[in-house]
Every structure is written in C-alpha cells, then in structure tokens.
Design brief:
Chain B: Pathway: Cofactor biosynthesis; ubiquinone biosynthesis. The complex is a heterodimer. Chain A has one domain. Helix content of chain A is 71%, strand content 3%. Chain B is mainly α. Chain B contains 9 helices and no strands. In chain B, α1 crosses α2 and α7 crosses α8. Chain B is elongated and about 90 Å long. Chain B starts with 26 loop residues before the first helix and ends with a helix. Classes of the chains: A mainly alpha, B mainly alpha. At the A-B interface, α2 and α3 of A face α8 of B.
Chain lengths: 232, 248
C-alpha cells in the first residue's frame, strides 16, 4: 500500500524520464462536447470488429433472403397466382432490408462478404428448388430460414445491448447514437422476419411432404452460411 | 483490412494515427518527419538518414533503438528503425492525402475530388524522394512479416481511402474488391514506373498513371457489360423454354 502511493506520486510528478516523451500522451482534447452533449470514448478494436461482422453477415443474409423470394416468385407466381401478393409483400420488405444494410456497409466502410456470388447462387437454388417440389415446400423453406434469422437477430440484439455501454468524457456511460440506431433497425427487421414466419405457417408450411427433412436441412444450411459470412 | 468506421463526430478524437502507436507531437514523429523531409531525399530509406536526423536535432543516438520498437527485427530487412521510417512515410502520406476533405456527411455527388486527382496527388507527394523509390520498393516487397502486417494493408488502406474520398461509385458486392484491387494495382505500377522515370517533374509518370487508371476502369465496364449480356441471355432462354412448354 505504502509502496504504491509513493510510486503513483513519483510517476505523477516525475520531472525527467527518458521514456516520457515517447509515450502516447493523453492530453485533454480541446473539444470534448458536441451540440448534444459529451463525447464518447473510442470504441475498442473488439467492438469495431463485432460491428464489422454484424453488418457483413446481415447484409449477406438479407441478400440471400432477397434472392430466395425472387426464386420463389419466379417459379410459383404463374401456377399459383393467389400466392403472388403474399410473396411480393415479403420480397419487398426483404429488398428494403437489403438496401438498408448496403447503405450501412458503405457508410461505415466495412467490406462485403468475399463470397457474395456464392450467396447469390445458393440463395437462388434455395428459393427455386423447394418451390419446384410444391408451394407448401417453399413455405416450409421460408419458415426454416426465418426461424434461423430471427434467432440470429436476437443474439445480435443481446450482444449490442450488453457490450456497447461506452464511457463518456463526463464519466457517465451510454450507448452511442449509431448503436441505438442499429439496434432499432435490427429490432424492426427481426419483427418483420417473424411476421414472414407466421405468414409461412398460415400458408400450410406444415403440410410440406418431407417437412422435417426440409426444415431441418435448410436450418443447418442457414446456420453454416451465417457462420461463414461472419468470417469471410 | 479496414474495419467498421464509427461516426467520428460522436467520439473523442483518437490521439494517434492508426496504425502508428505514437502521437503526432511525439519525439518519434519529430525525428521521422525531419528525416523524411531533409535526409531521405538525399540518402534514401536507411539507417544513415535516421542517424543524421538524430544528430541534426541534437538527440541521443540511442533514440534509434526506440524508433523501431514496434517492429520485430528481421534477418531480411536492414533494421526495425528503417522499417518504422517506411511505415511512417506510408501512413502519414495517406493521412495527408485526405486531410482537407471533410470526414463527415460526405456528399458523393459534389465537392469531392475525382479518383484520378487523388492518385496523381499521392504520386506527386513522392516527387522529392523520386530517386529513392527503387530502394523503397525493395524494402516493401521482401516477403516477410512486414509485408503482411504493414506494406499490403497500407496499400489497401490507401486504395480504400482514394475510393471513399473521391466521387467514385462504391459497391456492395464483388466490385468492392475488384475496384480496390484495380486501384492498388494502378498505384503500384505507376510507382514502379516512377522509380525509373527521368522526365522533368515526372510528367511521364503522371501520364502513365492517367492512362493506366483509364484502362483499369474500362476493364470494369467490360465486365459489367458482359455480366448484363449473360443475364439477359439466361432470362431470354429460360422464357423461351417456358413458352415452348406452355404450347404443348
């Protein structure tokens, strides 16, 4: 205890040190306040890396959703015209989600997933193939995909709520504005994805013939895709 | 590679320029700045230039071992201090390139320079040390940890900055990568040309960079047109098959 106080005193008042001019100084920066309050400390590299990953995986995911619905519409809209407005409605929402994440990606200068062409191809196949079996199979596919996406968004929301309480220059802690915005976006999108899940169940997704096989297969494919898109 | 960029106006300004670990008013920056401005153009990127700067600034010679502290020593490179000098050169020049452009609320449609202007501006920054570029290239391209940790990331950061801070269209698919690769490639080839260039004020280099960038961007157009055509053909043939099926 005694030693420590001495040390802190000497460090604070040391008049000469070879190393002191070499250290990064934490001199108070002149402008600490913005129009709407105090500024935040810098995000840590880990926090930046997490946000980077969130934007990349969500962008890739919404791109996938866009292509899945496109594939379903392409196959189903002529044979089953009554499904057209339902699919169209869901597809338009997915397009909006996708463009939102595209804008976030450009704004925050993160990189898109390196295997974007593969996602496009895979998602088209995932949209077209079940739709070729039957409209119920297509709905089962929607159900599986939206279940995984809903869970995934919830995980992200949990992490954003827990890990982004940043200190401010006046000593208080808060979430930065951009994190709040991102949370709101993800919440809104999660609710819409779960709406799609309900729509799929209402449209007889449980009647699909190899129901278990289809949904479980697609779920595991989606999980693998999420794992990959977060990293590559 | 680059990661998430927060909206900087909400945060305290960082005191260092990433990836440098010291502030701009630190002793390291003072020595390296002095060296780049005064001794590198004559002596090149080597220990001699750094030692001269240290002497001219009246500092203790032991400073040279402090300068290289953030680089690991390597058998293939000359010294960690020289590596730091090169890193400092790359990072500060990149920073200087976009310093005057407002960092917030970028309006892509007006007020931004073109990609070519930024490229030429960056090349012109190296005119004073034009004779030392061969040396610089040799140091940068040796296969080593330094190449992976500093040289290549800095190159891609530069390309990313040039695209972000110019009025060039940015992308959210593979074109994001190809455009950055194209710009990096243009920059490196122009730099190589510059190392051999003996024309007045490196005018031939600037012409070369202009042509190269034009060609690379044209390549992008070729690709887009080919993709459009392939998609069109695919859709037309799919519809043709569908219509034939309906007829039967």
């Amino acid at each position: 205890m005694y030693g420590r106080t001495i040390l802190s005193k000497t460090v604070g008042t040391k008049s000469f040190s070879i190393l002191s001019p070499l250290r990064a100084k934490s001199t108070p920066v002149a402008e600490k306040k913005t129009a709407n309050g105090y500024k935040f400390e810098q995000l840590s590299p880990a926090q930046k890396a997490y946000l980077d990953r969130v934007i990349r995986v969500d962008q890739a995911g919404e791109l996938g959703a866009d292509y899945i619905y496109r594939g379903q519409i392409y196959v189903l809209s002529h044979k089953y015209p009554h499904l057209r407005p339902i699919l169209d409605h869901m597809w338009k929402q997915e397009v909006h989600h996708r463009s939102t994440f595209n804008n976030l990606q450009l704004k925050h200068r993160t990189r898109p997933s390196l295997i974007t062409p593969l996602w496009k191809l895979g998602a088209t196949v995932m949209g077209v193939a079940p739709a070729l079996i039957s409209p119920e199979a297509a709905m089962a596919c929607t159900e599986a995909v939206e279940t995984v996406i809903g869970n995934h968004y919830n995980e992200q929301l949990r992490c954003l709520a827990n890990q982004f309480n940043i200190s401010k220059t006046d000593g208080s802690k808060d979430e930065p504005q951009e994190i709040k915005k991102l949370t709101d976006i993800i919440k809104e999108f999660r609710d819409q994805e779960l709406e799609h899940l309900d729509t799929a169940i209402k449209n007889d997704s449980h009647m699909a013939v190899p129901y278990k096989l289809l949904t479980e297969g697609i779920k595991s494919v989606c999980k693998a895709a999420i794992w990959t898109a977060e990293r590559i | 590679m680059r990661s998430y960029h927060p909206i900087s106006k909400d945060y305290v300004k960082p005191i260092t320029i990433e990836p440098l670990t010291y502030t701009t008013d630190s002793l390291q920056s003072k020595v390296l700045d002095h060296c780049l401005a005064n001794n590198v153009p004559k002596l090149g990127f080597n220990e001699k230039a750094i030692v001269q700067s240290i002497n001219q600034l009246g500092l203790s010679p032991s400073i040279i071992s402090v300068l290289g502290a953030s680089n690991s020593p390597s058998f293939v490179h000359s010294s960690p201090a020289v590596l730091e000098l090169i890193k400092y050169h790359l990072v500060t020049k990149r920073h200087e390139l976009t310093k005057d452009i407002p960092q917030e609320n970028i309006d892509r449609n007006n007020g931004l320079p073109t990609l070519e202007e930024l490229l030429i501006k960056r090349l012109q920054m190296d005119i004073p040390m034009g004779n030392q570029l061969t040396d610089l290239f040799a140091q940068l391209s040796i296969p080593s940890q330094y190449l992976m940790d500093t040289a290549l990331p800095e190159l891609f950061n530069l390309a990313d900055d040039m695209i972000y801070f110019s009025n060039e269209k940015d992308h959210f698919d593979m074109a994001w990568y190809t455009k950055r690769l194209g710009v990096s490639f243009t920059y490196v080839t122009s730099k190589l040309f510059m190392a051999q260039d003996r024309s007045v004020d490196f005018s031939e280099t600037m012409q070369f960079a202009h042509d190269k960038l034009y060609n690379v961007m044209k390549l992008g157009d070729y690709y887009n047109n080919a993709e459009e055509f392939a998609w069109y053909t695919l859709m037309v043939s799919a519809n043709l098959i569908k219509s034939q099926l309906v007829r039967k």
